[in-house]
Specification:
By secondary structure, this protein is an alpha+beta fold. The chain has two domains: about 80 residues; about 90 residues, Glucose Permease (Domain IIA). Helix content is about 35%, strand content about 30%. It has three helices and eleven strands. The strands form two sheets. Strands 1, 2, 4, 5, 6, 8, 10 and 11 form an eight-stranded antiparallel beta sheet that branches. It starts with a helix and ends in a 7-residue tail after the last strand. The relative contact order is 0.13.
């Protein structure tokens, strides 16, 4: 009986060591990439101009970078796989009617409708937009969606998952705007 406990203890200990090694390796690789980038920017103005143009002047997708990071390096934190969370809210977007409104669309929904996230992504804006009201903008790998006229407790740069609770509609009108690479796109591909 004691041998089983010792065996379990040794397995847990080796898992902790491998998690720490993986985390340290990721940290080392990212530090190396960061330092190389900083040194390159200092040495060559063309690289500085290129990065400035690609990151600051155009619509840069942080969700795409996060997707690449997760694909090749795994989760940011070594213990994410140990957390087991049961979803409480897992819904699809439901509406009664949809019409064109300014740059996007207005959906007629039930009073105080609970809004689900359409696509997993990162929150890049939380605040007030003229003609739209309280707005949350989520950037996913494929599309950027504005959720307008909602009350929400999310914060800037929070990570959200498809189907999860985003907020509550004020009244019965939900405004959505769909953008891909900075251009407006039709809702039919995304709802």
């Amino acid at each position: 009986m004691n041998i089983m406990y010792i065996d379990e203890y040794l397995k847990k200990r080796s898992n902790k060591k491998s998690s720490f090694k993986m985390f340290f390796t990721k940290l080392l690789v990212l530090s190396f990439i960061f330092l190389i980038t900083i040194i390159s920017i200092k040495k060559d103005d063309n690289i500085k101009e290129f990065l400035s143009d690609k990151v600051f002047s155009k619509n840069f997708s942080f969700s795409h970078i996060k997707g690449l990071y997760t694909k090749y390096l795994g989760s940011v934190l070594p213990f994410d796989s140990m957390i087991d969370i049961e979803p409480v809210f897992n819904e699809e977007l439901k509406y009664n009617d949809i019409n064109k409104y300014k740059d996007g669309y207005v959906l007629s929904v039930d009073d105080n409708y609970l809004v689900p996230v359409q696509y997993s992504g990162i929150i890049v804006f939380v605040g007030e937009k003229e003609d739209y009201g309280n707005t949350v903008i989520i950037e996913s790998e494929d599309v950027t969606i504005w959720y307008c006229n909602i009350n929400s407790d999310v914060k800037l740069y929070d990570e959200v998952t498809s189907g999860k609770y985003l907020g509550e509609v004020v009244g019965n009108k939900l405004y959505l705007v769909f953008q891909k690479e900075g251009d407006l796109v039709d809702y039919k591909n995304y709802i």
